[in-house]
Amino acid sequence: MDETAATNAPGGAQPLAGAxxxxxxEGRAGMVVxxxxxxxxxxxxxxxKEVHPRGFYRLAAPWGPVDPAERFGQPGSRFAPPxxxxxIACGRASIPYIRLLKRKAGARTFTVVxxxxxxxxxxxxxxWVPEHDxxxxxxxxxxxVSPHGFPPERIAALRSTVPPEIAALPEPRVAVILGxxxxxxxxxxxxxxxxxxxxxxxxxxxxGFMVTPSRRxxxxxxxxxxxxxxxxxxxxxxxxxxxxxxxFLAHADAFVVTGDSVNMAGExxxxxxxxxxxxxxxxxxxxxxxxxxxRAYGATRPLxxxxxxxxSWSYRPLHSAHIVAAEIERRWQxxxxxxxxxxxxxxxxDAGQ
Length: 353
What we know:
alpha/beta, Rossmann fold, 6-stranded parallel β-sheet, 33% helix
């Protein structure tokens, strides 16, 4: 799908703006970011439902039931009427909840799952997966990058004012976005040495650095980034105070992003500015398809270990939250036309009741 379109619907209309929405996740940052990006594009008034099933109910997810202790649908439960207009779920543990909500609320709630639920296409009214995922179907929508919270208007607003500490850095400014070990990228000593060497090569060109670790960043990768940028002017976020990541994203002239995070790479590609991907040893077929697609689009290039001159390129920024939102809106309006009286049963959607 075209991830460069600027609006959700003709004229920028948002038929679900102000409507109540639920976001159901395990609370992991990557899941919340994707769900919030879609909810914001719809203009929903969001109620977060963080779920942490235990014992059998966690092991049985996504195919098993909701723990009866949740008292789903009963007065006083976290999951009780009035039902939302839209519910967005992301993550394995959330799937039993969205399935049960779909059964109980019926047509009054439009249900959405982000990522493959593994429990079949009937899990929700709409399922989004990235293009590098194999799931397809009549209610499945795909985009190259994941939904996120950096639409064009937010990036433009951030760029309107440059914080003094960033303005003081030499140009070009390079944001270094660090991930860390996961199930498929293990990060060897050689990987850390390669990253350090690549950053030293950039430092030798006189760039200014803006470095931010993430929650998954292990000590060795942080050390490699510290050593690689030590000879340059830099901002190195140590985790204290406000996270400068949004400002880094807006004001970087280029990015170095570790290849272990689909979300971080996608957010950098929302800027239209060069993105170098540092890919450690390991990986998987899904990650390879994703990085191959970003390179084919023209957004990213592999991070070289040596760089004798500054490199730059451009591309149309990649955005996807508004695409998913537009499909939800289209299907919701079709449902309204097909189910007489649904607006009355749902409540005043425009007022968010």
